[in-house]
Amino acid sequence: MKKLLYILPIFLLLSCEEIILEDDISDERINLVAPADDAQFYSTGITFTWDPIENGTQYRIQIAKPDFDSPMQIVADNIIDTTSFTTQLNIGQYQWRVQAVNSGYATAFATRSLTVVSNEDFESNTVSLLIPQNNLVTNNNTQNLTWQPVIGAATYKVQIINSTTSTTVHEQDVNAASLAYTFSNGNFHWKVRASNAEGQNTMFSSRSLLVDTQAPNTPTLTSPVNLSISSDNNVTFEWNRTSLAGSTETDSLYIYNNSQLTDLEYKNIHTSPYTNSTLPDGTYHWFVKSFDAAGNAGAQSQVFSFTLN
Q: Which one of 1.10.10.10, 2.60.40.10, 3.40.50.720, 1.10.10.60 gives the CATH number of domain 123-211?
């Protein structure tokens, strides 16, 4: 007697969480914007741009010298999540190409050529800032400001500007492509330009960051009052806290089933007042703790208890 063997489609063996449906972008075409095909440059700083693909989550850009058919060197091979890329290229001929990718698919590459003829137009170079990322919010006040070296540069001028007062708090000429600097608390722009031996300067490139090393204030609990008893299961939690200047602050409400604070009933971010109607009868212990976007954590408030019956 022959036995029948049933093979289930593989997708039936996967849980709902394991099935990831990704849009097929393989037939989409990347539209390169700049540089134009066969463009010639008299400076070594090149910015490549292209139009976004709707369901592409990242882009792969490759640069070959002199071309991809017979490359002497792959100058760049980067996967990024933006539609532009800036780099320095030595004098010579190049091809560059871009494809869009997501977790399941990739488009075909779109390809163009360019030539860097010379670096006589040094002032048209762009200083490509690397780290820290633009609009960084941090509680680390010492930052290693880093940028891509500009071909032909002799020195770099670095400026630190307080964004609130628009005043320059630090200015320094450096030979390397980095500078370690300790910021005070506040909003800042850091700017870099390159200079060559002939005294030509590029434009400044700029990024922003917010430095906040101060932990939020400790909340003061007001309601429900400590040791209170209520028959109303609509419980309104209230507390006070004075906000500090700096990064965005949030309050986390913690509700426990025991005084040892080991059996967590509820936790979430809320603003005061907050009403909860899901707590069953029982005795609860609660507190509020505050955090900010820079990674600072405030001290835990006092612990209050209340009983619902």
A: 2.60.40.10
Cα(70)–Cα(52) distance, integer angstroms: 29
Average pLDDT in the chain: 94
CATH superfamily of 15-120: Immunoglobulins (2.60.40.10)
Q: 61 CB contacts (<8 Å, ≥6 apart)?
A: 48, 76, 77, 78, 80, 85, 96, 97, 98
Mean per-residue pLDDT, 185-205: 97
CB of 290 closer than 8 Å to CB of 216: yes
One-letter amino acid identity for 86? T
6 φ/ψ angles, rounded to the nearest 5 degrees: -105, 125
The vertex-251 CA angle with 246 and 254, nearest 5°, equals 155
Q: Name the CATH architecture for the domain at 220-308.
A: Sandwich (2.60)
Place of tokens 């290229």: 89
Q: What is the pLDDT of residue 22?
A: 78
**What integer pLDDT is reported at residue 18 of this predicted model?**
44
Tokens of 169: 């708090």
Q: What's the whole-number mean pLDDT along residues 16-25? A: 66
